[in-house]
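Design review, sub-item: ligand-bound model
Attendees: FS, YL, KQ
YL presented the inputs for the NAP complex:
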Amino acid sequence: MVARHLSWLVTGASSGLGQSIAIAALQAGHKVIGATRDVAKAVNTSPDFSGKGGIWVQLDPTQQDSYEQFARISKEHDIDVLVNSAGYAFIGGVEDTSEDEVRAQMEVNFYGPLRAIRACLPVMRAKGFGHMVLISSGAGFIARPGRGVYSASKFAIEAIHESLTQEVETLGVKVLIVEPGAFRTPFSTHLITPAAHESTGGFSKPYKGTALDSMVTMSRGIMDVPPPHLVRGCPDKAGREIVKAIDNGYNYLRMILGPDCVAAMEQKLGSLHHDFDATRAVAMSTDIDITEKV
Ligand SMILES: NC(=O)c1ccc[n+]([C@@H]2O[C@H](COP(=O)([O-])OP(=O)(O)OC[C@H]3O[C@@H](n4cnc5c(N)ncnc54)[C@H](OP(=O)(O)O)[C@@H]3O)[C@@H](O)[C@H]2O)c1
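KQ shared the predicted structure:
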């Protein structure tokens, strides 16, 4: 039983985390609109979705006219919850990555979700109720070797959400950033590596044997690691926790998912504390002298 039946719009609903969230929301009694670039494919890959009453819409968030589509859908279905899950990871070294590859990553992981948010906000604002849910990543807070571009896209869209939550908190709209660790979805089969270095394993020769080589090689074969597996996250469990948070309320901005993400986050927080302690005294010393003329 849910207190209130909500109207959800989920991008990337045809697969992985988006699919699990969409199904969990339907199971909890909500109405769910699933956005996909290819409805015919989605009907095949996610038969449960239509079976449980989900409604597919054809929409590619990377297309500029998707703003109008998001706006129309949000009005037509009176959307209460927007989940931005569509995304992919570009894994490649800073030096090895072309500007076009960076732009393509930003188009999907940054501009797409931003368009969706801007288009859906007016409906939520008008009724004084709504949730903006971003499926970010541990990589939205931690940038590892080979993940600079992916992390840049997730850091950037997290910044939008961190800012947005303060802009809309008095207007009845809540914001939730989800930071999953590694989850067992088709995500790793959609990884993209630098095209120019495909013939040498996804990185340029000088990086052989470095942290970049390890990360690219590990990422490409990550789902092949035998039990106990490197990728242990269960997408259906994640989906249910996200729906529970929306239904029961939450008093945080970031929801971390997966023990691997907890460990990585502890390490990052430790390094932030280290830098903070190491530079605090200097930081406290750089204001103008009040006797100094400016
Ligand atoms: N799985 C993980 O380990 C993991 C960890 C941390 C964060 N995440 C994040 O979780 C989100 C969902 O990932 P997932 O694991 O569910 O992956 P997935 O199974 O590959 O699903 C990704 C979805 O994104 C859409 N998509 C992919 N490339 C796109 C493109 N170029 N343009 C537009 N849409 C595109 C696809 O939608 P259509 O093909 O239907 O249009 C697909 O449904 C992503 O934002 C990802 O960064 C995943």
